[in-house]
From TrEMBL:
Flavin prenyltransferase that catalyzes the synthesis of the prenylated FMN cofactor (prenyl-FMN) for 4-hydroxy-3-polyprenylbenzoic acid decarboxylase UbiD. The prenyltransferase is metal-independent and links a dimethylallyl moiety from dimethylallyl monophosphate (DMAP) to the flavin N5 and C6 atoms of FMN. GO terms for molecular function: carboxy-lyase activity; flavin prenyltransferase activity. Its EC number is 2.5.1.129. Dimethylallyl phosphate binds at residues 167, 183. It holds the Pfam family Flavoprotein. It is an enzyme of class 2 (transferase). It comes from Halalkalibacter krulwichiae. It comes from the Bacteria. It catalyses: dimethylallyl phosphate + FMNH2 = prenylated FMNH2 + phosphate. The lineage of its organism: Bacteria, Bacillati, Bacillota, Bacilli, Bacillales. This is Flavin prenyltransferase UbiX. Belongs to the UbiX/PAD1 family.
């Protein structure tokens, strides 16, 4: 099966806490031989350093270490590369997910700012009626956050908060991460075995 037959997804990782969710999602898509267009914000690189304890001086090396062993096709894009194919509605793909999604990025999408490639690509998804999933990771939420979530939801985006469940009886941090990433993959329509579903045997 070719990568095109498997599907093409755009993944954004922002500076919200929880970069590991985005990393795990990209790894799973690549493991299943999907084609992935990846956009990382500058703040995401800071979180890679602070939360994942990665040396981000050589960003190409970081990308290789995180994703190089998988079979899928990975394309990374600079945050301000408006010439990237994903910036155009004519580029065919199967949807976009921003995981985690910062409140700043959410605001940019909600107002149609298109201030960078991540916001522009999200705007393309909405205008073309394609799948856009946002995984906000913030607490507590103020009224602006809530209104922006409602605003993007009304025009077709799906809000999937980074709220892990516990009915699968997680025994490790990996179990909690995999549950959230699995829910994200469910929303994308991608099969996986990352967690035990309700009613299934452990």
């Amino acid at each position: 099966m070719t990568n095109r037959q498997k599907g093409i997804y755009v993944v954004g990782i922002t500076g919200a806490s929880g970069a590991v969710y985005g990393v795990r999602l990209v790894q799973e898509l690549l493991r299943q031989s999907y084609k992935v267009h990846l956009i990382l914000t500058e703040a995401a690189w800071r979180v890679f350093k602070e939360e994942l304890l990665l040396d981000t001086e050589d960003r190409n090396a970081v990308i290789h270490d995180l994703f190089g062993e998988f079979d899928g096709e990975l394309h990374t894009h600079h945050l301000h590369d408006y010439g990237a194919p994903i910036a155009s509605g004519s580029y065919q793909n199967d949807g976009m997910i921003i995981i985690p999604c910062s409140m700043g990025t959410l605001s940019g999408i909600a107002t149609g700012a298109s201030g960078n490639l991540l916001e522009r690509t999200a705007d393309v998804m909405l205008k073309e009626g394609r799948q856009l999933i946002l995984v906000p990771r913030e607490t507590p939420l103020n009224q602006l956050h809530l209104e922006n979530m409602l605003r993007v939801s009304k025009v077709g985006a799906k809000i999937l908060p980074a709220m892990p469940g516990y009915y699968h009886l997680p025994k490790s941090m990996d179990d909690l991460i995999n549950f959230l990433v699995g829910k994200a993959l469910d929303s994308l329509g991608v099969e996986h075995q990352l967690f035990t579903r309700w009613g299934e045997k452990q």
